[in-house]
Amino acid sequence: MACTGGIAGDECQFDHSKGVTAVRRVATGQFCVTVPGINAADTPAAVTVDSSSSSSAGAGAPGVTTHADGCISIGSTDQFEVRTTRQPNITVDANGGTNNATAAGLVQAADSVGFTIVIP
Question: Phi and psi of 12, rounded to 5°?
Answer without folding.
Answer: -100, 150
